[in-house]
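re: that chain from earlier
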Amino acid sequence: MSRSSLRAGFETQSPAREASALTRRLKSTARHFRSGLHREKLKLFCLEDKQPVCLVCRDSQKHDNHKFRPISEVVSSYKEELNTALQSLQEKLKLNENIKGNCEETVQNIMSQAEHTERQIKQQFEKLHQFLRDEEEATITALREEEEQKKKKMKEKLEEMDRHISALSHTIKDMEEMMKASDVCFLKEFPVSMERVQISSQPDPQMPSGALIDVPRYLGNLSFRVWKKMQDIVHNTPVILDPNTAHPDLVLSEDLTNVVRIAA
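^ sequence. v structure.
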């Protein structure tokens, strides 16, 4: 197996599997504390080969001109080095655990923020919806009032027209009867009949101006007019405060435009 393959296999091992493998290696080493070649106790450590050796190994050609230290001395030095690395890893672990805790807390904060923000969005839109409903109701109410007023005027005009038509009908009927009368009766009633004709010849009633609904009053630029009115309840604030960067002791207003109070 190539070195790259060994490295790849090692890098893909999980931390738990690596720890388990280390435990097995330590147990195996503890059982073989003698030199495999000479069956002597391992008392020295070869600084060149980085491995423990026995006294016989020290004098062998394999370790010629090598430097050695007592195992206890090397172990003490290595333990100090490893302990320093261990403390660094422990601090790193603590830091990672703190970061994890912060991340978990942030997830809860995100959920809380989303819920609170959604509730505020609905409240803001409900104000706008209520404003539009009120404007719709006021506009339709004005339309209905104009409808009633103009229907009343037209009913009065119709009653006037009925009276005028009735008077004309009677006059015409009388004139037709007089035309059939004898000459003496005709001459006798003629002045009166002509007087009635003159009265009936007055100008005819006219259709009143502005009788129909003033549709442009209600539909003309309706959206724009409502938008202009909406400016009375909608304001633009050039500076918006960010609750994510505000000091934790500060409480911001619902619209994020000012500090409401200082928390105790």
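The longest strand covers residues 259-262.
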